[in-house]
Amino acid sequence: MAKRVGIEVSIAVSEAVKLARAEVIPAYPITPQTHIVEHLSEIIANGDLDAEFIPVESEHAAMSCCCGSAAAGARTFTSSSSQGLSLMSEILYIPSTMRLPIVMVLANRALSAPISIWNDHQDVMVQRDIGWIQTFAENGQEAVDLTLHAFRVAEDRRVSLPMIVNIDGFTLSHMIEPIELPDQEEVDKYLPPFKPRRRLDPRKPITMGPVGIPEVYTEAKVAHDQALKASRKIILKAWQEFADIFGRQYNPVEEYRTEDAEIMLVTMGSISETAMTAVDKMRDEGKKVGLLKLRLWRPFPSLEFRRIAKSAKVLGVIDRCLPPGAVCGPVGEEIRSLFYKVPGAPKVFNFIAGLGGRDVTVERFEEMADKAAAYAKKRPKELYEVIGVREK
Amino acid sequence: MIPEFEKFKGFSAKNLPKEEPLAPGHRACQGCGEVLALRMVMKALGKNVIVCNATGCMEIISSPYPYTSWTVPWIHVAFENAASVASGVESAMKVLKRKGKIPKKHVDILAVGGDGATGDIGLQWISGAFERGHDFVYVCLDNEAYMNTGVQRSGCTPYGAMTTTSPPGKKSFGQVTWKKNVPAIAVAHNIPYVATASPAYFLDLMNKVKKAALVKGPAYVHIFSPCPTGWGSAGERSIEIAKLAVETKVFPLYEVIEGRYFMSRKISKPKPVEEYFKGQRRFRHLTEDHIEYIQRRVDAEYDKLVKLSEMA
């Protein structure tokens, strides 16, 4: 039987990677991802996982090694954060269009300058369009479960795409939480060995990564977009099978107290836990506030989101990323587009909060819910508002 | 010495492999010395190989989808990272063999890139792969500038050469820096095998590539690759120019086996560098003073190499 233990989330993620029987792990250390790669190195050094750990000289090399490894047919994992993900950026777009399954756990962290090791979502939002499947974990258990799910989905021959599991740096990665680590047998049942459709093999030579002349480039990109959109079904099915085996159900958009909610806050990642406390408090006070937690970011779960959110009058979308000079935050923009000119759609307001490790407290969620309600009556000048800016 | 070398008898005119892992019909320029060198590299390696190609001329001319010149497994990811891609392939093969998922038989892994991909933008990736000791061959096809993008200077462009970003003018005489010694950088990593080669000496080239593949651990072969388009030379003269580069001591041929230098070809009666420069538009503007300086430095660099080989 699976045991529930008190464990640091990073360590639990490494244990999940071990349970997934990852075969090649190229990684470069960066705060706050370090505990994941340290523990994986230890697991391999002790002979508890038969894998190759490649201690690369940069994150760019880590992602490049991942491409080679996945192309050669090995189950491939890496982990990074912030500046490291930015350094990988050039390569990130390549395995997705080349349809190479790679799983990455990203310990989300702010981007320089000023240099900050603390949590927000700017690192991943910059990489929004890399064409990977992207999920967000809310707590340690989800980090473990979504990691296993990621291998299952990424390597499915119908999908064959790389996948990022986002976990908030420090606020999630470094917490000690009660987590149920599944049994190896059950994981093996859920996650069969990786059998790539194609691999680099002298017995059956193929050319991977050729030149895309103008006559084929558009089609290659469209094929990628279609594959990413079509992955939705497999993602859902893999969550259903996860629930059947492990008893925990996941959805692309999770609802919390949305019944008859007029105002719905929209969150991603670990701040959702505080948001739920805030929603409870507001509900106790008779306010009709609910919460939508976006678990699947790419492909964007338009269908589910529209269905669930359409009953709200107002949506308060919280971004943890400030794109300077933009109309609003990336998640705000996405949801605004989703409801643009849809009859009877909720009004969408965008808040930017929790940058560079700034706490988003219960009071802040209350403030955002109240402001969203007020803005529904009188539209503010700007399409976004940064919450909790110190005046002095 | 390296035990793997003992069983290798060497290529000769009599036992040249017939197979062409790099098939004809690619789109290289007429007289391209680089594609010729690559063809020899592939002939030496045979079909039991996985190729990781950096972005550059060779990648572009051999893989315009839906066509390919590659009859062996081949992957291209980006410009600077062929050594990292090869590291990933090698590590994957290692673990998959251990787990019995693929045959245990050895497969050679080749990473190949131009001088820009190798000596400039990719240096860090190569350094990392060499330092970690992956079992692969890195081949640099050095045509002494960024030819694929239109002949811009690289760290491997020779002193005085004209390129589109080192143009001679009122205040310049072309490339102002001496050619970067990339083989020496490879040697500094204490890898078991480093060599220089030239398509003008094709048996020597093929033997070196084969030795690089036989050796356990990383190996580096730096190959002189004439580029008629970029050098302003006649296509039919590529081999002649490559030969002159060796005969004038401009591009010496040597091996460094476990740190010990061996001259492959001692030049006892060198030709003047001027002879090598003739017929190459990139050197046309050089004055006598420049040529004299280059001659002195070429001789000095060559002497240094000979001294290193005498220490072996």
How would you characterize the overall build of this protein?
The complex is a heterodimer of chains A (392) and B (312). By secondary structure, chain A is α/β, with parallel strands linked by helices. Helix content of chain A is 41%, strand content 19%. Chain A contains twelve helices and 16 strands. In chain A, the strands form four sheets. In chain A, strands 10-12-11-14-15-16 form a six-stranded mixed beta sheet, sandwiched between helices. In chain A, strand 4 (77-80), helix 4 (82-97) and strand 5 form a beta-alpha-beta unit. In chain A, helix 1 (9-19) crosses helix 2 (34-45) and helix 6 (140-155) packs across helix 8 (214-246). Chain A is globular. The mean pLDDT of chain A is 97. Chain B has one domain (3-310): Thiamin diphosphate (ThDP)-binding fold, Pyr/PP domains (Rossmann fold), CATH 3.40.50.970. With 312 residues, chain B is of the alpha/beta class. Chain B is globular. Classes of the chains: A alpha/beta (392), B alpha/beta (312). Chains A and B meet through strand 3, helix 3, helix 4 and strand 9 of A and strand 1, strand 2, helix 4 and helix 6 of B. Strand 9 of chain A pairs parallel with strand 2 (74-76) of chain B, so a sheet runs across the interface.
Identify the most extensive interface between protein chains: A-B, 44 and 47 residues
What is the count of DSSP helices of chain A, taking H or I runs of 4+ residues?
12
Secondary-structure content class of chain B? alpha/beta
The assigned CATH architecture of the largest domain in chain A is: 3-Layer(aba) Sandwich
Average pLDDT of chain A, rounded to a whole number, is 97
CATH topology of the largest domain in chain A: Rossmann fold
Proportion of helical residues of chain A: 40-55%
Along the chain, the helix and strand elements of chain A come as: EHEHEHEHEHEHEEHEHEEHEEHEHEHE
State Rg of chain B: 19 Å
The CATH first-level class of the largest domain in chain A comes to Alpha Beta
Structural class given helices, strands, pairing of chain A? Answer: alpha/beta
The total of beta strands of chain A comes to: 16
Low-confidence segments of chain A: none
